[in-house]
Design a protein that fits this description.
With 442 residues, this protein is an alpha/beta fold. The protein contains ten helices and 26 strands. Strand 13 and strand 14 form a beta hairpin. Bound molecules: flavin-adenine dinucleotide (FAD). Flavin-adenine dinucleotide (FAD) binds next to helix 1, helix 7 and strand 22.
Length: 442
């Protein structure tokens, strides 16, 4: 008889860890839940991989960053023993390759069947590979990607070996910038290459980007705006350089690629509705099939604040919140209760060298950047608001305090009216601190 569980979580990342925690809080019985993950470790806080994990001194290592340490504190750091203690079956190094969801069956790579009554799909995203785009020599040794803990362990070794040598990071998004920061603090001569006019184009305006690029420059990181067309390799197929479109090349003892990620939504073709590349779910995170839910990076879900506009959100706070919410949704259904729909305000953060920022809402409409005069080579507090149809719909803040970030998050829920953009610029963070009402919950 194939193993059978009341609840199965497919994927063992951030959302899975938070969902398991919520199951336990809501009275899970031993033997009811299984988590299936192709990784070899229990769920952990993935953002640590491009931050503390690569630190030259006192690096973050498991079990230090197992979920749910970021929202529950050290008492909620759940290593494998926590799962055993609560009777949760952790099936690690187990890859699911498909299944028949109408029969409530999953199929693993080793051809085992696992049955479920309710399934939560939490397969996250996968890093986009240059080999998929057939970039010449992109299969050379010395080209790295970062998505899972096993990748981070390999990358960390390569970084230590590359001390004093040249490395190229491809991609000007947050992964590229965070990895670039990690390389330079490890003494690697780092160049970040991307084709867009400035870094983090999806969030930053040119002025905001200039602050970070200047800061990186001061730490010795070079930025090159260029398209990469291939890699230079030696006779043993080790990478030795990166070829640019203008015919030049950059020397590289190692290359790290951070050019984006795509949702892992390919396991059940034609069985579940797909939208924007993710599994389409409703406000209770239910997919198009009964008893099958999707959470985290792989779910395309309605954002209440934007009139149920469907969005994918590849960010950790959504993974945590949707992991917890889906269990509340399942419990409510079992107890014939009605709960409010999932209500997520887009949010994202990053830490880069000694700078740290948070972004809330949407970066559309007019952008008002404030506080740039405060910025010195050592950093400083500054931010931005985005105003659309007279309402503040987006906010960004570098080097804020907890209270200031809380105020911004409330502000974006309230979307207050503004008419005078000049005054908004002068008021800076004081606008959020005075306008956002303390009662609104983040
Ligand atoms: C290096 C890095 C840094 C990041 N930093 C930030 C940050 O600073 N801020 C931020 O907001 N977000 C950040 N993110 C994004 C954030 O980590 C993700 O949004 C979050 O992890 C998504 O959680 P998830 O549970 O949906 O997916 P994941 O955490 O990716 O977990 C998915 C799990 O499913 C498993 N899986 C996939 N397919 C299968 C299969 N077929 N069979 C079995 N198991 C499978 C995977 O192995 C993995 O364990 C970062 C991501 C990375 C990679």
């Amino acid at each position: 008889m194939p193993p059978s569980f009341k609840y199965v979580i497919l994927g063992g990342g951030v959302a899975a860890g938070y969902a398991a925690w919520e199951f336990v809080l809501s009275g899970l019985r031993p033997g009811e839940l299984a988590i299936i993950s192709k990784e070899q470790v229990a769920p952990y806080e993935r953002p640590a991989l491009s931050k503390g994990y690569l630190n030259p001194e006192g690096p973050a290592r498991l079990p230090g960053f197992h979920t749910c340490v970021n929202m529950g504190g050290p008492a909620e750091r759940h290593g494998p023993e926590w799962y055993a203690q609560h009777g949760i079956t952790l099936m690690l190094q187990t890859e699911v390759i498909g299944g028949d969801l109408s029969k409530k069956e999953l199929l693993t790579k080793s051809k085992d069947i696992i049955k479920f009554e309710k399934l939560i799909i939490a397969t996250g995203s996968t890093a986009m590979k240059l080999t998929d785009f057939k970039v010449p020599n992109s299969d050379a040794r010395g080209i790295y990607y970062l998505r899972e803990e096993a990748d981070a362990a390999i990358l960390d070794k390569a970084v230590k070996k590359a001390k004093g040598k040249n490395a190229v990071v491809l991609g000007g998004g947050y992964i590229g910038l965070e990895i670039g920061a990690a390389l330079v603090i490890n003494g690697v001569q780092t160049t970040i290459v991307f084709p867009e006019p400035h870094c983090l184009r999806r969030v930053f305006t040119p002025e905001i980007a200039a602050v970070y690029q200047t800061h990186y420059d001061g730490k010795g990181v070079k930025f090159i705006q260029a398209a990469v067309v291939g890699f230079v390799v030696d006779n043993s197929l080790n990478v030795t350089g990166v070829k640019l479109k203008d015919g030049s090349s950059l020397p590289a003892a190692m290359v790290v690629v951070g050019v984006g990620a795509r949702p892992c939504s390919y396991l059940f073709p034609k069985q579940l509705a797909i939208e924007q590349g993710g599994y389409k779910v409703n406000g209770r995170l239910e997919t198009s099939l009964p008893d099958v839910y999707a959470v985290g990076d792989v779910a395309t879900f309605p954002i209440k604040l934007y009139g149920n506009e469907m969005q994918l959100q590849g960010h950790v706070r959504h993974a945590r919140m949707s992991g917890k919410y889906v269990v509340q949704s399942i419990r409510a259904q079992e107890e014939c209760r009605v709960i409010d729909d999932y209500d997520y305000v887009p949010y994202f953060y990053s830490r880069m060298l000694d700078m740290r920022w948070q972004f809330f809402g949407k970066n559309v409409g007019d952008c008002v950047v404030w506080g740039l005069a405060n910025v010195t080579p050592a950093g400083g507090k500054f931010g931005a608001y985005w105003v659309m149809d007279g309402k503040v719909v987006g906010a960004f803040l570098e080097s804020g305090s907890t209270d200031e970030y809380e105020a911004l998050s409330r502000l974006i829920r309230e979307q207050p009216q503004v008419t005078d953009l000049k005054k908004l610029e002068e008021d800076g963070i004081c606008f959020a601190l005075t306008v956002a009402s303390p009662q609104v919950v983040r």
